[in-house]
């Protein structure tokens, strides 16, 4: 069985993101970058399937600039077998990424695709579902548990009201939620080994899919600032403020 | 402009998030049509037709839609989409599951989690966990949108007199099947709709200790939430999580107890009207957004708070 995982290079989740003064976007120069946390979970899940003897190959794909290769190397160091780097200097929107992933899927014919539920930069939460639609495959989004048996995937999903279980025929797309697993750190020997693993490069523009942006970013601005309030002395004062000043209880 | 809103429901009653999506729709067009797809969901169609501003309810009743599986919902929505310029759904786990599939089938972008409508093509949405607000303009013929519930008031559930039209099922897939669900049972108000929310974090120390939170919640008629750390530690179920990747809440009063205030948590609650933080660390970042901060040990403060509330 072959598993494909999609990994995106994003601003590290610990970075305090700043809006550019000209409103054209957020500051990305000299900012620490990392693999999207949900994609680490996706890679971990795929590698565990391989370690369990369920999967025989794990292929990691990224779509992005030359620097995204770093992210792909991280996936390889975590245990993916090989990488595909779809090069695009423009940041592609989810619809375009899904089209790129579709063309990779048609070539690779994976049995399972695992992607993150959302990229923590655009917070779109779309790509996996779009890919599934384009492939006419079923989807198990926001997965907190995945079990594969008899060419079926049983996925437990984190939904607003609790948990939901769905059964999907394969191939299918799974999108990861935070509690699916705890991703490993790549060990130094594995980081060294990853340098020798193959990465295939393709140009996004050469795939024959429409990757033009459909949304124009008119501007990016700071959210309304919240002023820090006051520190109360004790519980009595807190209750008094809530009753008589804020009038919320 | 012609707007379709996808109703979210449990086959017997309408989920409140639908009402916010209707309000967003009414910012685009004078009336909206609502699609109610489900199984034995006549009462929902009835309720939807009474929402102020609803002109027509498209009611599709078929077991295939009982659990709103995206693989079945998307083809239905696409089959009904002719003539609509906008298709809106609440940005709930159901909406987020279904709408990108609809957009892909229509070959258009999907616009996630909008918090404001600038004009019929232009919308505002948070990015980077709400650290930035993006104004985006769509060039697509159909706008497929999910709506952040806390950003739009609920539409009036009465006063409307929409017609109800029965529509037939679309193609269904057998590649996906609902197997079961484990829904959290609670007597408390729903987290995203509650006027008061009290959340506990890693500082609670155990699930057992959440009874201190529960006791205060009982007095306040509050919903109970949690940070990711509290959920990961197994103190409370995952549907309690408030934040960038959990639920977005904006109650009149939000009380954060034993929560440090990581950016990912703030993303889910910083639009609350009044924020209270109880934390023993005066340096905790949560105090930077709190209207009222109490530097105290929660194991002393919570019982005292409970006692002082009437
Ligand atoms: C991709 C990603 C997505 C995420 N999404 C979310 C999300 O949606 N929601 C979310 O909440 N987090 C999310 N996080 C996690 C987030 O970064 C923080 O790790 C998390 O919010 C921390 O939870 P906490 O404040 O409960 O724990 P901690 O940061 O450990 O804080 C515990 C606090 O309790 C206080 N405390 C301890 N004991 C006491 C006591 N006796 N009395 C009073 N105070 C006490 C401490 O002073 C401390 O401030 C996400 C992270 C990532 C990487
Ligand atoms: N440029 C990209 N390269 C690789 N994977 C991506 C890219 N963009 C999105 N993805 C995948 O799609 C998931 C959801 O992203 P999004 O729909 O943008 O929130 C991410 O967690 C990744 O797994």
Task: Describe the model.
The complex is a heterodimer of chains A (249) and B (310). Chain A has 249 residues and is α/β, with parallel strands linked by helices. Chain A has one domain (2-219): 3-Layer(aba) Sandwich (Rossmann fold), CATH 3.40.50. Helix content of chain A is 27%, strand content 31%. Chain A has 6 helices and 13 strands. Chain A has a 9-stranded mixed sheet with strand order 9-8-7-10-6-1-4-5-11, with helices on both faces. Chain A has a two-stranded antiparallel ribbon with strand order 2-3. In chain A, strand 7 (139-149) and strand 8 (152-159) form a beta hairpin. Chain A is globular. The model of chain A has no long low-confidence stretch (mean pLDDT 97). Chain B has helices at residues 17-26, 42-49, 70-80, 93-106, 210-220, 228-232, 263-266, 298-308, and strands spanning 3-6, 32-38, 54-61, 86-90, 110-114, 116-119, 122-127, 132-138, 143-147, 163-166, 176-183, 196-200, 223-226, 253-257, 274-279, 292-295. In chain B, helix 1 (17-26) links the parallel strand 1 (3-6) and strand 2 (32-38). Chain B starts with a strand and ends with a helix. By secondary structure, chain B is an alpha/beta fold. Chain B has a 7-stranded parallel sheet, with helices on both faces. In chain B, strands 13-12-14-15-16 form a 5-stranded parallel sheet. Chain B is elongated. In chain B, helix 3 packs across helix 4 (93-106) and helix 5 runs parallel beside helix 8. The chains are: A alpha/beta (249), B alpha/beta (310). Chains A and B meet through helix 3, helix 4, strand 7, strand 8 and strand 9 of A and helix 3, helix 4, strand 5, strand 7 and strand 8 of B. The structure holds flavin-adenine dinucleotide and adenosine monophosphate. The site of adenosine monophosphate has 23 residues of chain A, from helix 1, strand 4, helix 3, strand 6 and helix 4.
